[in-house]
Each structure stands twice: as C-alpha cells, then as structure tokens.
Design goal:
The chain is α+β, with helices and mostly antiparallel strands. It contains 4 helices and 9 strands. InterPro entries: DNA/RNA_pol_sf, Rev_trsase/Diguanyl_cyclase, RNA-dir_DNA_polymerase, RT_dom.
C-alpha cells in the first residue's frame, strides 16, 4: 500500500519549470551503429532528489498520528519530472549523445562493440556511485544485443522493432 498526498493546491501556485523532456524519436536517432546495450533503472527516481530546506514545509501533511514533511522530492509535484531530468542531464552532460541517452530515471548505455561498452559502463557506474544515485538492480539489464527501452525493442542491427512493455 502506498501513500497518496494531494498536492493540487501546491501545484496550482507553483511556477512551472519549462525544462523540456527529450523527444523519444530524437533519443533513438542517436543509437545508429550501436550493437551492445545496457539499461539502468534509477531506483525511486524522484526520491533521490533532495528538497531545499526552505521548501520542505511546503510538502507537509498530517495523519491522525502526526505531522510529516518530505525531505526528498515526492511523486505528484508538478515540477518533479523536470527537476529530476535537469539533475540527471547535468550529472551526465559530458556523455549524453555520445554513448548514453537518459529519459527521466531510465538510462540506456549504447556502444559499437564490447570493448567500448566496458569503458562506457565503467564511466556511467562510477558517476552514479560518486553522485550517490542508486539503480534498482532487479530492473537493470547489461550486455544486450537488443533491449526494450521506452516501449520499443531496439536491436544491434539498427532496428527499432515493435513495442515492449516494461
């Protein structure tokens, strides 16, 4: 059972973050020539993003037992996807469009061959470790010649085939 907080009033007065989410077809265009893939799913994505101390009281809610405040980004805040996407893009800026694509909390590492892929994975995993961003290992897949990503099956022959359900 999960907790559901009604943030409609807070969302209504929040200045919208216009940070654009990437277009999926633009992400797929980058995969030309790739033959090896690894998919990394960041665990509880938004919960890895700390809230500024001054904004913590805005997330307050009460149960019949006590008062609570979020210290990390809860789901259902209007700017959560944009704020998290901005963080991940800043963390991986040097490597985006070279050997990885990111869509919110999903990371796809792609390479032309296994030697490149070993180095690319090492770089990505070291950055995740350094920045204390955690993956959900049970949802990660490594060293694949085809991968389901963002609802599509991507293969090493350059094809984006059919649809895939996560």
């Amino acid at each position: 059972m999960g907790l559901c907080i009604d943030f409609r009033q807070l969302n209504w007065v929040t200045v919208r973050n216009k940070y654009p989410l990437p277009r999926i077809d633009d992400l797929f265009d980058q995969l030309q020539g790739a033959t090896v893939f690894s998919k990394i799913d960041l665990r509880s994505g938004y919960h890895q993003l700390k809230i500024k101390d001054s904004n913590v009281p805005k997330t307050a809610f009460r149960t019949r037992y006590r008062h609570y405040e979020f210290l990390v980004m809860p789901f259902r805040l209007t700017n959560a996807p944009a704020a998290f996407m901005d963080l991940i893009n800043r963390v991986f800026q040097s490597y985006l469009d070279q050997f990885m694509v990111v869509f919110i909390d999903d990371i796809l590492v792609y390479s032309r061959n296994k030697d490149e892929h070993e180095e690319h994975l090492r770089v990505v995993l070291q950055i995740l470790r350094k920045r204390k961003l955690y993956a959900q290992f049970s949802k990660c897949e490594f060293w694949l010649d085809q991968v389901g990503f963002l609802g599509h099956v991507i293969s090493g022959d350059g094809g984006i085939n059919g649809f895939y359900e996560d």
